[in-house]
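STRUCTURE:
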């Protein structure tokens, strides 16, 4: 049977050839599926390998990723993608590159243009955030659950994001928590080195790290007390920005479901938008939905939204200038 060995070799080479093609041209979910198939690993084994890297990802999420139903976005998910490159014996940055390049095929043009930040830029910002958090030896969660978050954003006379102020009510979910890590992502063209962080109530500023190319700023807010598991704490801080150009929206992302969130945007007297609206987004790669016009308070020149209980994803307020 001279043809049998040749047939077996061809079958064995097929997954590898498919993987090479997928890694070259993508998209991400096809390449991931081909890589898992080439290694012959069930998703439960992939999850087990990830846990050995200190990364927690559910089998359902892995399934969604390789089907293209969802895409990795949060820092923890991006750590998983980098770990997958090692687990599946792939070249460094091969999957991460495909994630960034696949931005052009997702969402409507109007959603991307109004966002001001593409999925690629948000992906790069997530990578920068991961490195800055590693420098501070902490995570975004930091051992705290958010019970309430009230955020006030000010738009300046040049229509720029002038500043924002945040008040948090948090609960510790383990003993010894004594700080919170604040993250600020400025608008395109911003200068993080010119931003300042102010500890306003029940906290003081600690270390600050900045990444110029992505506009990410990370700051420690120290509590001067160590919380025990179950303790609640209230604190307030602000970020002076004003370093970028015209701002058209403010967006807040949530990695997990949590407590109440309220966002208020206030405009200066000489920079009033013609209309405002709220919107939601499952992820940075997904199309926007939940659009609802918001009334602008004439006397106080402000607009707001309230989420009684936030869900994983993004929520924000956008506005149109004349």
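SEQUENCE:
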């Amino acid at each position: 049977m001279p043809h049998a060995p040749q047939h077996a070799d061809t079958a064995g080479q097929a997954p590898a050839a498919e993987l090479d093609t997928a890694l070259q041209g993508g998209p991400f979910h096809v390449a991931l599926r081909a890589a898992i198939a080439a290694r012959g690993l069930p998703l439960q084994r992939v999850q087990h390998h990830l846990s050995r890297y200190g990364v927690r990802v559910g089998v359902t999420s892995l399934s969604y990723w390789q089907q293209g139903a969802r895409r990795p976005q949060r820092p923890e998910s991006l750590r998983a993608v980098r770990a997958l490159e090692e687990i599946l014996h792939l070249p460094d940055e091969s999957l991460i590159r495909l994630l960034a390049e696949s931005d052009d095929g997702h969402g409507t043009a109007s959603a991307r243009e109004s966002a001001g930040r593409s999925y690629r830029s948000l992906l790069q910002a997530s990578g920068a955030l991961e490195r800055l958090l590693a420098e501070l030896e902490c995570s975004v969660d930091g051992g705290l659950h958010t019970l309430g978050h009230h955020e006030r954003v000010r738009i300046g006379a040049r229509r720029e994001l002038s500043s924002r102020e945040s008040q948090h009510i948090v609960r510790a979910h383990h003993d010894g928590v004594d700080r919170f890590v604040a993250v600020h992502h400025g608008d395109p063209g911003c200068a993080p080195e010119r931003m300042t962080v102010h500890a306003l109530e029940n906290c003081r500023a600690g270390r600050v790290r900045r990444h110029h190319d992505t506009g990410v700023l990370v700051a420690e807010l120290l509590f001067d007390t160590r919380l025990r598991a179950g303790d609640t704490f209230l604190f307030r801080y602000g970020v002076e920005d004003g370093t970028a150009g015209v701002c058209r929206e403010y967006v807040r992302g949530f990695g997990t479901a949590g407590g109440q969130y309220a966002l208020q945007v206030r405009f200066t007297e000489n920079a009033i938008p013609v209309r405002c609206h709220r919107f939601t987004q499952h992820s940075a790669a997904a199309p926007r939905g939940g659009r609802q016009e918001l009334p602008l308070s004439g006397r106080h020149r402000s607009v707001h939204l309230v989420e009684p209980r936030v869900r994983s994803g993004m929520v924000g307020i956008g506005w149109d200038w004349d």
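REMARK: The two ends are 78 Å apart (CA to CA).
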